[in-house]
Queue: 2 jobs
Job 1
Amino acid sequence: MDDFRTQLAAAADQTQTRLASAIAALPASGVADAMGYAVAGGKGLRGFFVLQSAALFGIQDAVNAAAAVEAIHSYSLVHDDLPAMDDDDLRRGQPTVHKKWDEATAVLVGDALQTLGFDLLADPACHPDPARRVALIGSMARAVGAGGMVLGQAQDIAAETAIHSLGLDEITALQANKTGALIEWSATAGAILADADPTPLRTYATALGLAFQIADDILDIEGDAAAMGKATRKDTAAGKATFVSLLGLEGAKTRARDLVTQAKDALTPYGGGAESLRLAADFTIARQS
Ligand code: GRG
């Protein structure tokens, strides 16, 4: 696992460097400063999926697509932290953007990170073939729009005031939209860049996305708030149905492990070239933050 953490950190550095140069190219402003703050400090897992899935097809430079997904993921966190959404004071161990600046800045930072993500995908440096860039842009728009991440977030917010708490199928569908869609985009990005069949990577990502969310629910119960850099036990306090409340702690752990096995099995067609993606699947449920 230590080897994997080193690989992940190296990929995150590469992605962060690209993001920093894209943000430095913007006119100087408070929003640009806050954008730099908002993209820093994450694990960079989604960018890692992009870089590794691209490497499977012999594409060594996918840093624009990796930076794009991390910008869009950071936007979702900044908006999720707002008082109108999850209302959090701490993210990645630092004050959330609306706490360090203000709510208007946080809304604008999220908006601008989302458009920056699409700009990075539209850049010829992302891929020389415009058709590949359009495919990435279209698939990203579908993953994060009102049929994907935004839908999942709306379903999550609706669940908070629903009379009946959600069942397993409903939670699974909600999470597939809220966190799964962007993870799926990340893990299939290499196939999209290479104009190859994304099916095995999609199967990997579907299982992995769900395992990621189950791990998040387990960390919400067992995790250490200091290590995670954010508040924990919020879901329990809010009485929200989670994979842990529905399956029990041990049941949730077993389900997460089974999903990781399924995810790794889906990589068989890629042979030894997919070893980093296999390690990433293990990391998804072993992580402490
Ligand atoms: C605001 C439209 C909109 C959507 C927000 C993803 C999301 C939707 C909200 C995040 C809420 C949350 C904490 C979900 C749990 C899973 C998750 C996305 C955790 C954060 O991802 P990591 O662990 O974060 O990859 P880092 O900080 O490492 O980038």
Job 2
Amino acid sequence: MNPLQTHIRGLTLENPVMNASGIWCTTLEELNQIGHSQSGAIVTKSMTLKERNGNPEPRFAVEEGYSVNSMGLPNPGVDYYCQHVKNLERGGKPVIASIAGFSVQEYTELMARVARQPFDAVEVNLSCPNLESKGIFAYDLETASTILEKLRGMLTAPMGVKLPPYGTRNEISQTAKRFVELGVDFVTLVNSYPLGCAIDADTRKLKIAPNGGVGGLGGKALKPIALGQVLLFAQESDHKLAIIGVGGVDSGRDVIEYLTAGASAVQIATALHTESPSIFKRINKELLLFMKEKHIASLSDIIGTVKSAQ
Ligand code: DHB
């Protein structure tokens, strides 16, 4: 029995660590590199109906302890991924398609195309922070529900939703309960905090150009925010939603924290960008060492087992 094996509903992963959508996953070459690595799954860049160049540069700044990005969904379009998924060097790993539309109709069209292809799951991205003029779909629960109700009926594979950080427990409670009713299988928590900003003191310049210098905040600074979302979504869904944690993961101990809070797997964004896909091997090694030291036989023994501080 592989001690690192984990499950996201029907999917079996040989380990709980994978790339986050957007990092190292836009081209076939990058996706193959994830396939050859020790990632537990392969997640695509959020694909749109048409090819996009994204926002003007500079659009990604990695700083000490955090990152800010406003990429603007650069990707070769849904047909590219549908064409290449059959030949992907996946190394036995599940492949998760991330989709991002600009309207209910576009999400439906995207799902119609990916549902016909050998993707093992679909992560519906309702939380892209970088699209000027469009709000974040997930913050409007009625529109989000309309989208998810339509998409659920189109896919037999597991369907997940990538969400932004919420500011109140009430929003999390309502969202979690509605998603359970709608038959959502998993939630990916969380996308970058939407209104981050980085400034260079020497030049007094903003570090990224699009959207007036404001974009998605990720990296270590996001970790306590994401952990709180994982903890509350697990509670408020009565543990009926599987959870993938994302935000500031760059060590085996980070993975343990997310799993203890209620996640079944984690994704890596900023640290994958900095360290390359060899990061998966390092983190899995750290995880195994930690489990050995603490006499944890299987990850399923710790998922959602967080204890109170008293
Ligand atoms: C982009 C950023 C995101 O956080 C996301 O979920 C999708 C796309 C981007 O700017 O490309």
